[in-house]
Automatic annotation (TrEMBL):
The lineage of its organism: Bacteria, Pseudomonadati, Pseudomonadota, Alphaproteobacteria, Hyphomicrobiales. It comes from Methylobacterium frigidaeris. It comes from the Bacteria. Belongs to the ParB family. This is Nucleoid occlusion protein. SUPFAM superfamilies: ParB/Sulfiredoxin (SSF110849). GO terms for biological process: chromosome segregation.
Amino acid sequence: MSRARRSLLDIDEDIAAGRADGGGSVEVGPPFERQPRRVGAVRDMDQSIGLLEKEAAELERIKALLASGGAVVELDTSLVDPSAFRERLDYDVSDLTRAIQARGQIVPILVRPHPEEEGRYQIAYGNRRHAVCHELKRPVRAVVKDLSDAEMIVAQGQENAARKDLTFIEQARFVANLRKVHPAIEVQREIGIDESLMHRMVRIVAALPEALIQIIGRADRIGRPRWDKLAEEVKKLREVGTPEEDIVARAKAAVDAAKARTKEPKPHTLFEVVFDVFVSGKPRPVLGLSVEGGGSLGKVVSTATGSNLKLNDQAFMDHLVEQLPELYRQYREKRGLPTAGIRIAAE
């Protein structure tokens, strides 16, 4: 019997006899680490073994929680709210769904009584397990423990460190969200993160519209340097007055085009296409414009910061400039954006 399987069986007996008294504290976990990429023909088996190993590690932490005062209960999933500091950009729960259907929910989630709504609970960690149980219409097993906001940070940071599978941008969002409500020194101490890395993460997330990050998604295989470069270029656009909705619209157009070309693009591919839109260094496409029946009208040249329209017919260019205010109004109206006019003046 493997060490992971043996640990699961041993620890689950302790959980079944969990204590119901309160109190205690949560121990601090190690810093974030990167999850190595698994490839090869044995990937499915490797993922199954990895799931067992994660469960064993999580059960060790649950065992410690029970020892320090915590109760295992079954909760209606509708009474449990997501973590206040969620870091995941998506929730692929297919592997976990199969495991819970086959073996039940081995690992309880960790919740605290909701600080603002009586009778409800808030997840410290275990959002994926909660989502699966909700989908399967079954109660979720949970350790209920009174936790302060600081203890919530520690608990979730500990789980993040142990899982080792959060991408860089998910880690960065988690850290940035914590910094919104807690001092830097507290975040640094509680999750064990390097000070310079913490500040870089916060800066990157602040520079990028949240909607753009959501469009890109998890972006596995993409580390800090490339996110840093993307954030730098997007920040430049915002500093010269480019509306955030326009930046997001350009990113969405690139991602939609990638999805149209490939049925299920890889998570890192979505980052790549957005990166190409905003960051210079790669050849930019040129679209030729021709009149039906022959003859060149001009071309559209895409650049890192926008597109240039070059027309051979000056009269048509003058006509187009006259129509720009109405065209821009229609563009914004179609996308549900606030009405905004265009002022045309010589420079």
